[in-house]
Specification:
Length: 300
């Protein structure tokens, strides 16, 4: 993870790998959410990736065990090729997990994630272990499942954002917390001394000057009374190919730096189990443990 030398010692953190040159990749409009759930007395990671292509929206589901081994997958192709409403039974360690979805009247914004009028439910032994969407009553009625209090925890969200100088998204750093407007701004074209700034709800919470010397780093801010560690790597913006992306991570876990250094960020569908397990333990003790990872692509 430290193929590029740091300009500011051991406190510098590299968040991209030299083998992941953006010139060899085509950026995609993806949002990936990773939930930790418990059923059959074991913990599992449920990864849900919403995508948007020229053919339309799609969603991919995968379930991993505690060894980070993929147990099963469900891929709903863009709407032209798949049903917007249905169900499927998956085998998870010799147990049946039912997935039900209704996306027939879903409303989308400019991104790949659905905004309203949908549900995606995971049912085990007649109980809902994970339920997404606003059509919760409809989900319970159609699945005939008991809507008990789910133990699912959102441990990570990864998103691809696009812009020329300004990149924006929404961010929620804790369960039932406030949804914030998050803006990343950097003008690296034709500027001798580019500056990086991050705003939350129109308030500047971080600013990095002399960015060519500080293209990787980390800084702690306070949001919703939570200490959030921000890591950034804008090497591709300054020195890489024209279509390269910068990477940002907003991490509420106390062990953020160790997690960051062990992460392989250029693989958008992988998440080491030691991260999720540590996040779960940390969150259960202190209410923390969520990470937001942003891949910021320049639209030239």
């Amino acid at each position: 993870m430290r193929d590029f030398p740091s300009c500011f010692g051991e406190t510098g953190v590299q968040v991209t790998d030299s083998s992941s040159s953006s010139s060899n990749k085509i950026y995609q409009n993806l949002v990936t959410c990773i939930y930790q759930c418990t059923f059959v007395g074991q913990s599992y990671l449920i990864t849900i990736t919403w995508s948007k292509t020229l053919m339309g929206q799609g969603v991919n589901v995968s379930i991993d065990d505690s060894t980070n081994q993929c147990l099963c997958k469900l891929d709903l192709k863009p709407w032209l090729f798949s049903k917007r409403k249905g169900s499927k039974s998956l085998d998870v360690n010799s147990c049946k997990l039912d997935i039900h979805w209704d996306l027939s009247a879903t409303k989308f914004g400019s991104g790949p994630e659905p905004l309203e009028n949908f549900f995606l439910a995971f049912i085990f032994n007649g109980e809902i272990v994970l339920l997404l969407g606003d059509l919760r009553k409809e989900a319970v009625k159609k699945t005939n499942a008991n809507h008990c209090l789910s133990n699912a925890i959102l441990v990570s969200k990864r998103e691809h954002i696009f812009g020329k100088r300004v990149y924006g998204t929404k961010a929620q750093f804790c369960d039932n917390g406030q949804i914030h407007d998050l803006i990343i701004e950097c003008d690296s074209i034709g500027t001798i001394d580019p500056c990086l700034s991050i705003r939350i709800d129109n308030k500047v919470v971080m600013q990095v000057k002399r960015l060519r010397w500080k293209f990787r780093g980390n800084q702690t801010i306070l949001v919703d009374n939570l200490a959030i560690e921000i890591f950034w790597d804008v090497h591709n913006w300054l020195f890489g190919p024209a279509i390269g992306s910068a990477v940002f991570m907003f991490q509420t876990c106390l062990a953020a730096e160790k997690i960051w250094e062990s992460q392989t960020f250029y693989q958008p569908f992988s998440l080491p189990w030691n991260y999720s397990q540590g996040s779960r333990e940390s969150k259960s003790k202190s209410g923390l443990g969520f990470s937001l990872i942003l891949y910021a692509w320049k639209n030239e």
